[in-house]
Automatic annotation (TrEMBL):
Superkingdom in the source lineage: Bacteria
Residue runs in coiled coils: none
Organism: Planococcus lenghuensis
Presence of the UniProt keyword Membrane in the record: yes
Name of the protein in its database record: GGDEF-domain containing protein
Shown residues within the full chain: 471 to 752 of 752
Record key words, sorted: Membrane, Transmembrane, Transmembrane helix
Entry keyword NADP: no
UniProt domain EAL: residue ranges: 24-276
């Protein structure tokens, strides 16, 4: 119908659709220059021990501040970056930057901790992915055990291939976490044989704890994870009662606004305890 109106049918589409396409094209174009222009940066959200409330690690989350567009959320630009393949370069930058920062904190005297980054399935499936990880760690002089890769259940579309890649990642000593667990379609059979270290329970299950009938779901996921010898992390904790329910079901690690939002490195550092408090001799 639109096209029947002339050679440039495009402008006859609803203005909503037009605006959406335009926004997408703008993001795609501006994203190309984002790394060079140093518009990308990482924020860190603590992972805490639910009993002691101590910070035991962090998730690095990508942020983009554009001079004209302002802050663009990862929920908006990551899908564009995935569609255009730009996620490969951006994802590598994230890995390198998180590794550099982690090493810098260790050198400042903070206890070594594991920092996780999110990895797109497109990065994961590339032939050179392991080399990229290895190079990032070597250049940062970071211990592989200090890096964890968060992948989603979408990598399970190709179970056999993914399992081989995961085995090689873990052989390097790098940790693997299954993010947003429970929202995808991985079968229990697949999960049982998956070489991973951590299960991250999706926020939707944590939100659902307001309903007592939903507690069984979290209980089941935690039991499953513990039986498979995995670390269990609950994401998106906002309320104290959620901590109570989670700890009663033996979930020991959590992440969420209740403890801290994702923050800039300088602010994150304030949450860390130095290994040795230097004793002043007078
Ligand atoms: P995710 O990996 O599941 O990250 C958790 C998201 O939940 C983050 O949103 C975080 O800020 C948010 N969050 C944490 N605690 C709470 C809470 O208590 N309440 C609420 N309402 N939200 C909470 P963010 O930073 O906007 O990231 C969204 C998604 O974008 C991430 O979901 C991840 O899938 C993707 N993403 C972020 N950084 C990267 C990256 O470097 N690479 C890739 N490939 N994806 C990334
Ligand atoms: Mg994540
Ligand atoms: Mg998540
Ligand atoms: Mg999520």
């Amino acid at each position: 119908l639109a096209k029947a109106n002339g050679k440039n049918g495009f402008r006859f589409y609803s203005s909503d659709l037009n605006a959406t396409l335009e926004r997408k094209m703008t993001i795609e174009n501006e994203l190309k220059k984002a790394i060079e222009k140093e518009e990308l940066f990482l924020v860190y959200q603590p992972k805490v021990d639910l009993q002691s409330r101590e910070v035991i690690g962090a998730e690095a989350l990508l942020r983009w501040r554009h001079p004209k567009l302002g802050f663009v959320s990862p929920g908006e630009f990551i899908p564009v970056a995935e569609e255009t393949g730009q996620i490969i370069r951006i994802g590598e930058w994230v890995m390198r930057e998180a590794s550099r920062q982690n090493k810098a904190w260790q050198e400042k005297g903070f206890a070594p901790m594991c920092i996780s980054i999110n990895v797109s399935v497109l990065q994961f499936q590339r032939e050179d992915f392991l080399e990229t990880v290895d190079r990032a760690l070597t250049d940062a002089k970071l211990d592989p055990g200090s890096l964890e890769l968060e992948i989603t259940e979408s990598v399970m579309q190709n179970v056999w291939e993914s399992t081989q890649i995961l085995k090689r990642i873990r052989k390097m000593g790098v940790r693997v976490s299954l993010d947003d667990f429970g929202t995808g379609y991985s079968s229990l059979h697949v999960l049982q044989n998956l070489p991973i270290d951590t299960l991250k329970i999706d926020k939707s299950f944590i939100d659902a704890l307001t309903d007592i009938n939903q507690h069984a779901m979290v209980k089941t996921i935690v039991e499953l994870g513990l039986n498979l010898n995995l670390d269990i992390v609950a994401e998106g904790i906002e309320e104290e009662y959620q901590v109570q329910v989670l700890t009663s079901h033996k979930c020991r690690i959590g992440q969420g606004y209740l403890f801290s939002r994702p923050v800039a490195p300088e602010e994150f550092e304030q949450l860390l305890v130095p290994v040795q408090e230097t004793v002043q001799v007078t």
